[in-house]
Specification:
about 260 residues, alpha/beta, eight-stranded parallel sheet, TIM Barrel
Length: about 260
């Protein structure tokens, strides 16, 4: 079985003591590739370094909305520079977060739109963070997606750890976006999310852990890690009444297509 964890913060301190063992456990669970998204300048550099160190690890670079209060053109220049590294496959994670009060909405939006413009210029897909900001996020993405170069028009990016309403899913899919699902799909109160995952087009579905967060049942309460992405795939397979191998094959092909990963 071949799985891809399309969103794992392997560069975070929670993995400092056993990072190599985490990657090895993932490989034993059938996870052949891991994508590390950045949240700020330091984590972007760390993600690029880890991608260079581990064969099956790739990186994306960007400034998370909660880290945009002091966003400047220098941050954008750094992201542009890091995006040229060999195994950087996307710009992200970027977006809007109205849950936490860590950055003014105007600053978040300015950084979001600047990084979207950079992604368009570099012809790279984006990894989108959206927390309690669905209306603004999807409106910005719809406007951005109308003016994309042919190289990314059919693979503009992914709404990661999807948790928005059905209407947001439909609008994102209409723009060509993929939706990423995490361990939260296994939680008791996630019926709406499970319905979206069950009915959406299979060729736009991705699986991810968002590790070290959002640990799936039965490991909830522990640190999440890429090996557990198999549990997300298993839950989606059950929802869609398909063999696990079919979900694994489809989500892996989707990730390869979106991020242009080597097979």
């Amino acid at each position: 079985m071949n799985l891809i964890d399309t969103h794992c913060h392997l560069n975070f301190h929670q993995f400092d003591t056993d990072r190599a063992a985490v990657v090895e456990r993932a490989a034993r669970a059938g996870v052949s590739r891991i994508l590390i998204p950045a949240v700020d300048a330091d984590s972007a550099s760390q993600a690029v370094a880890l991608a260079a160190e581990y064969a099956g690890v790739f990186a994306s670079v960007g400034i998370h909305p909660n880290d945009t209060a002091a966003f400047t053109s220098a941050d954008l220049d750094l992201i542009r520079e890091l995006a040229s590294a060999l195994k950087v496959v996307a710009i992200g994670e970027i977006g809007l977060d109205y849950h936490w009060d860590k950055s003014p909405k105007a600053s978040q939006r300015r950084a979001f739109e600047a990084q979207l413009a950079l992604a368009r210029d570099l012809e790279m897909p984006v990894i989108i963070h959206n927390r309690e900001a669905s209306d603004d996020v999807i409106a910005i993405l719809e406007a951005w997606a109308r003016d994309l170069p042919p190289s990314i028009r059919d693979r503009p990016g992914v709404l990661h750890s999807f948790s928005a309403p059905q209407s947001t899913a439909e609008r994102a899919l209409a723009c060509g976006f993929y939706l990423g699902f995490t361990g939260s799909i296994t939680y008791k109160n996630a019926d709406d999310l499970r319905q979206i995952a069950a009915l959406m087009p299979l060729d736009r579905l991705l699986i991810e852990t968002d590790a070290p967060y959002l640990t799936p049942i039965p490991h909830r309460g522990q640190r999440n890690e890429p090996a557990y992405v198999r549990l997300v795939a298993e839950r989606i397979a059950a929802l869609r009444r398909l063999p696990l191998d079919e979900i694994a094959s489809a989500t892996t092909a989707n990730a390869e297509r979106l991020f242009q990963l080597p097979e």
